[in-house]
Amino acid sequence: MKLRALVVDDEALARQRIRDLLRRSGDIEVAGECVNGLEAVRAIEELAPDLVFLDIQMPELDGFGVVEALGAERMPPTLFITAYDQHALRAFEVHALDYLLKPFSSQRFHQALERARRWCSHSATDKGPDLEGLLAGLRRERPWVDRLLVKQGDRHILVRTSAIQWIEAEDNHVRLHVEGTSHLLRQTMTGLLARLDPSQFRRIHRSAIVNLDCIREFQPWTGGDHVVFMRDGTRLTLSRTFRDQFDEWL
Question: Distance (Å, rounded) from C-alpha 86 to C-alpha 84?
Fold first, then answer.
Protein backbone atom coordinates (compact mmCIF):
# COMPACT_ATOMS: atom_id res chain seq x y z
CA MET A 1 0.00 0.00 0.00
CA LYS A 2 1.30 3.40 -0.94
CA LEU A 3 1.87 6.04 1.70
CA ARG A 4 0.36 9.48 1.11
CA ALA A 5 2.74 12.36 1.79
CA LEU A 6 2.21 16.09 2.26
CA VAL A 7 5.10 18.36 1.26
CA VAL A 8 5.34 21.72 3.05
CA ASP A 9 8.00 24.24 2.04
CA ASP A 10 7.82 27.88 0.98
CA GLU A 11 10.49 27.34 -1.70
CA ALA A 12 9.26 25.91 -5.00
CA LEU A 13 12.62 24.32 -5.84
CA ALA A 14 12.70 22.56 -2.47
CA ARG A 15 9.22 21.10 -3.06
CA GLN A 16 10.24 20.00 -6.55
CA ARG A 17 13.34 18.23 -5.18
CA ILE A 18 11.28 16.29 -2.62
CA ARG A 19 8.75 15.34 -5.31
CA ASP A 20 11.53 14.05 -7.57
CA LEU A 21 13.10 12.01 -4.77
CA LEU A 22 9.72 10.55 -3.77
CA ARG A 23 8.99 9.61 -7.37
CA ARG A 24 12.09 7.39 -7.35
CA SER A 25 10.89 5.59 -4.23
CA GLY A 26 7.83 4.17 -5.99
CA ASP A 27 5.77 3.51 -2.85
CA ILE A 28 4.90 7.06 -1.78
CA GLU A 29 2.52 9.43 -3.55
CA VAL A 30 2.34 13.16 -2.98
CA ALA A 31 -1.15 13.86 -1.66
CA GLY A 32 -0.62 17.62 -1.62
CA GLU A 33 1.79 20.55 -1.39
CA CYS A 34 1.71 23.65 0.81
CA VAL A 35 3.72 26.84 0.60
CA ASN A 36 3.18 28.01 4.21
CA GLY A 37 2.17 26.85 7.66
CA LEU A 38 -1.39 28.11 7.38
CA GLU A 39 -2.03 25.95 4.31
CA ALA A 40 -0.33 23.02 6.06
CA VAL A 41 -2.70 23.11 9.03
CA ARG A 42 -5.72 23.01 6.71
CA ALA A 43 -4.23 20.29 4.51
CA ILE A 44 -3.34 18.01 7.41
CA GLU A 45 -6.87 18.34 8.78
CA GLU A 46 -8.51 17.75 5.39
CA LEU A 47 -6.18 15.20 3.74
CA ALA A 48 -5.00 13.22 6.81
CA PRO A 49 -1.67 12.30 5.13
CA ASP A 50 0.38 9.32 6.32
CA LEU A 51 3.60 11.34 6.30
CA VAL A 52 4.53 15.05 6.31
CA PHE A 53 7.70 16.70 5.04
CA LEU A 54 7.66 19.93 7.04
CA ASP A 55 9.98 22.88 6.54
CA ILE A 56 10.78 24.71 9.77
CA GLN A 57 11.64 28.19 8.51
CA MET A 58 8.58 29.65 6.81
CA PRO A 59 7.07 33.16 6.95
CA GLU A 60 4.00 33.95 9.05
CA LEU A 61 3.56 30.48 10.59
CA ASP A 62 6.63 28.25 10.81
CA GLY A 63 6.84 24.49 11.11
CA PHE A 64 6.73 24.57 14.90
CA GLY A 65 3.63 26.75 14.69
CA VAL A 66 1.98 24.03 12.60
CA VAL A 67 2.67 21.44 15.31
CA GLU A 68 1.46 23.76 18.05
CA ALA A 69 -1.69 24.72 16.13
CA LEU A 70 -2.75 21.13 15.49
CA GLY A 71 -1.43 19.68 18.73
CA ALA A 72 1.53 17.31 18.84
CA GLU A 73 -0.74 14.28 19.36
CA ARG A 74 -2.60 15.00 16.09
CA MET A 75 0.47 15.33 13.89
CA PRO A 76 1.12 12.55 11.36
CA PRO A 77 4.67 11.11 11.29
CA THR A 78 6.78 14.11 10.33
CA LEU A 79 10.16 14.54 8.70
CA PHE A 80 11.40 18.02 9.56
CA ILE A 81 13.41 20.01 7.03
CA THR A 82 15.65 22.55 8.67
CA ALA A 83 18.71 24.77 8.45
CA TYR A 84 19.23 24.74 12.24
CA ASP A 85 22.77 24.48 13.55
CA GLN A 86 24.23 21.37 15.14
CA HIS A 87 23.59 22.57 18.69
CA ALA A 88 19.84 22.91 18.12
CA LEU A 89 19.70 19.62 16.23
CA ARG A 90 20.27 17.68 19.45
CA ALA A 91 16.59 18.17 20.26
CA PHE A 92 15.60 16.68 16.88
CA GLU A 93 17.86 13.67 17.44
CA VAL A 94 16.26 12.95 20.81
CA HIS A 95 12.59 13.72 20.16
CA ALA A 96 11.78 13.71 16.42
CA LEU A 97 11.11 10.90 13.94
CA ASP A 98 13.93 12.32 11.80
CA TYR A 99 15.09 15.55 10.19
CA LEU A 100 16.77 16.67 6.98
CA LEU A 101 19.41 19.36 7.30
CA LYS A 102 19.54 21.62 4.25
CA PRO A 103 21.17 21.01 1.83
CA PHE A 104 20.63 17.26 2.07
CA SER A 105 21.84 14.52 -0.28
CA SER A 106 19.59 11.94 -1.93
CA GLN A 107 21.28 9.29 0.20
CA ARG A 108 20.38 11.14 3.43
CA PHE A 109 16.83 11.68 2.13
CA HIS A 110 16.26 8.00 1.48
CA GLN A 111 17.78 7.10 4.85
CA ALA A 112 15.24 9.34 6.58
CA LEU A 113 12.48 8.02 4.33
CA GLU A 114 13.28 4.43 5.26
CA ARG A 115 13.04 5.34 8.93
CA ALA A 116 9.66 6.95 8.25
CA ARG A 117 8.45 3.83 6.42
CA ARG A 118 9.37 1.67 9.40
CA TRP A 119 7.56 3.98 11.76
CA CYS A 120 4.43 4.15 9.58
CA SER A 121 4.28 0.34 9.58
CA HIS A 122 4.23 0.23 13.40
CA SER A 123 1.09 -0.42 15.38
CA ALA A 124 -1.01 2.67 16.10
CA THR A 125 -0.61 1.85 19.78
CA ASP A 126 3.19 2.30 19.69
CA LYS A 127 4.57 5.42 21.33
CA GLY A 128 5.39 8.00 18.69
CA PRO A 129 8.04 10.68 18.48
CA ASP A 130 7.92 13.13 21.39
CA LEU A 131 6.95 16.31 19.56
CA GLU A 132 5.99 18.05 22.81
CA GLY A 133 9.49 17.35 24.07
CA LEU A 134 10.93 18.60 20.80
CA LEU A 135 9.09 21.91 21.09
CA ALA A 136 10.11 22.32 24.72
CA GLY A 137 13.74 21.58 23.89
CA LEU A 138 13.83 24.10 21.06
CA ARG A 139 11.96 26.99 22.66
CA ARG A 140 15.16 28.38 24.11
CA GLU A 141 16.50 28.57 20.55
CA ARG A 142 13.48 30.45 19.24
CA PRO A 143 12.45 34.08 19.61
CA TRP A 144 9.13 34.90 21.24
CA VAL A 145 6.21 34.31 18.90
CA ASP A 146 4.66 37.40 17.35
CA ARG A 147 1.65 35.57 15.84
CA LEU A 148 -0.70 32.82 16.96
CA LEU A 149 -2.88 30.65 14.75
CA VAL A 150 -6.50 30.36 15.92
CA LYS A 151 -9.50 28.58 14.46
CA GLN A 152 -12.55 30.63 13.58
CA GLY A 153 -15.42 28.52 12.27
CA ASP A 154 -14.06 26.44 9.40
CA ARG A 155 -11.02 28.63 8.78
CA HIS A 156 -7.79 29.60 10.55
CA ILE A 157 -6.58 33.13 11.12
CA LEU A 158 -3.33 34.62 12.40
CA VAL A 159 -3.51 36.91 15.42
CA ARG A 160 -0.64 39.25 16.23
CA THR A 161 0.36 38.86 19.87
CA SER A 162 0.75 42.64 20.19
CA ALA A 163 -3.03 42.96 19.54
CA ILE A 164 -3.93 40.63 22.44
CA GLN A 165 -5.19 42.65 25.41
CA TRP A 166 -5.56 39.87 27.94
CA ILE A 167 -5.89 36.10 28.13
CA GLU A 168 -8.09 33.96 30.35
CA ALA A 169 -8.10 30.26 31.15
CA GLU A 170 -11.14 28.35 29.93
CA ASP A 171 -11.19 24.64 30.76
CA ASN A 172 -8.45 23.04 28.63
CA HIS A 173 -8.16 26.12 26.42
CA VAL A 174 -7.27 29.78 26.70
CA ARG A 175 -9.35 32.66 25.41
CA LEU A 176 -7.52 35.52 23.70
CA HIS A 177 -9.23 38.89 24.04
CA VAL A 178 -8.35 40.95 20.99
CA GLU A 179 -9.74 44.39 20.24
CA GLY A 180 -13.42 43.78 20.94
CA THR A 181 -13.51 40.10 20.03
CA SER A 182 -12.10 36.86 21.39
CA HIS A 183 -10.60 33.62 20.11
CA LEU A 184 -10.36 30.20 21.73
CA LEU A 185 -6.97 28.50 21.53
CA ARG A 186 -6.16 24.93 22.50
CA GLN A 187 -3.28 25.65 24.85
CA THR A 188 -2.49 25.77 28.56
CA MET A 189 -1.80 29.05 30.32
CA THR A 190 1.70 27.92 31.26
CA GLY A 191 2.44 26.69 27.75
CA LEU A 192 1.24 29.90 26.14
CA LEU A 193 3.07 32.16 28.60
CA ALA A 194 6.33 30.37 27.73
CA ARG A 195 5.85 31.49 24.09
CA LEU A 196 5.10 35.15 24.85
CA ASP A 197 7.59 37.97 25.37
CA PRO A 198 7.86 38.44 29.16
CA SER A 199 8.58 42.14 28.68
CA GLN A 200 5.04 42.50 27.27
CA PHE A 201 2.97 39.74 28.91
CA ARG A 202 2.74 38.75 32.57
CA ARG A 203 0.52 36.45 34.55
CA ILE A 204 -1.56 38.21 37.22
CA HIS A 205 -3.73 35.32 38.34
CA ARG A 206 -3.87 31.57 37.80
CA SER A 207 -6.57 32.26 35.20
CA ALA A 208 -5.35 35.54 33.65
CA ILE A 209 -2.41 36.91 31.62
CA VAL A 210 -2.28 40.57 30.63
CA ASN A 211 -0.60 42.65 27.97
CA LEU A 212 1.21 45.32 30.01
CA ASP A 213 0.53 47.94 27.35
CA CYS A 214 -3.22 47.46 27.89
CA ILE A 215 -3.30 48.11 31.65
CA ARG A 216 -4.86 51.42 32.69
CA GLU A 217 -4.43 51.32 36.47
CA PHE A 218 -4.10 49.24 39.64
CA GLN A 219 -6.14 49.71 42.79
CA PRO A 220 -5.50 47.98 46.16
CA TRP A 221 -8.09 45.44 47.23
CA THR A 222 -8.52 43.01 50.11
CA GLY A 223 -6.04 40.37 51.27
CA GLY A 224 -3.10 41.86 49.42
CA ASP A 225 -4.80 41.53 46.03
CA HIS A 226 -5.22 44.40 43.55
CA VAL A 227 -7.86 45.22 40.98
CA VAL A 228 -6.42 45.68 37.49
CA PHE A 229 -8.36 48.00 35.19
CA MET A 230 -7.70 47.33 31.52
CA ARG A 231 -8.01 49.99 28.83
CA ASP A 232 -11.05 48.20 27.36
CA GLY A 233 -12.87 48.53 30.71
CA THR A 234 -12.30 44.95 31.89
CA ARG A 235 -11.63 44.49 35.61
CA LEU A 236 -9.23 41.70 36.54
CA THR A 237 -7.60 40.55 39.77
CA LEU A 238 -3.89 40.67 40.51
CA SER A 239 -3.52 37.99 43.17
CA ARG A 240 -0.84 38.32 45.81
CA THR A 241 0.73 35.13 44.43
CA PHE A 242 1.81 37.06 41.34
CA ARG A 243 2.21 40.50 42.94
CA ASP A 244 6.02 40.35 43.13
CA GLN A 245 6.15 40.68 39.33
CA PHE A 246 4.78 44.23 39.73
CA ASP A 247 6.83 45.40 42.72
CA GLU A 248 8.48 48.11 40.66
CA TRP A 249 5.02 49.58 39.94
CA LEU A 250 3.25 48.96 43.26
Answer: 7
Give the ranges where 139-243 is alpha helix by DSSP (H): 189-193
CATH superfamily of 3-141: Response regulator (3.40.50.2300)
Distance separating alpha carbons of residues 33 and 127, to the nearest angstrom? 27
* Pair 158, 61: CB distance under 8 Å: yes
Residue 36 φ then ψ, to 5°: -155, 170
- The rounded distance, in Å, linking the Cα atoms of 1 and 28 is 9
Alpha-carbon dihedral sign for residues 205, 208, 210, 214: negative
CATH topology of domain 154-246: OB fold (Dihydrolipoamide Acetyltransferase, E2P) (2.40.50)
Q: In the chain, where are the structural domains located?
A: 3-141, 154-246
Model confidence, pTM: 0.69
d(CA 201, CA 186): 19
Distance, in Å, from the CA atom of 250 to the CA atom of 244, rounded to the nearest integer, reads 9
pLDDT in 10s for each residue of the chain, 250 residues: 789 999 999 999 999 999 999 998 888 999 999 999 999 999 999 999 999 999 988 887 888 888 888 887 888 888 989 876 664 566 576 667 888 888 899 999 999 999 888 888 774 555 667 777 777 666 655 668 888 888 887 788 889 999 999 999 998 899 999 988 999 988 889 888 888 998 899 999 999 999 999 999 999 888 888 999 999 999 999 998 888 887 767 6
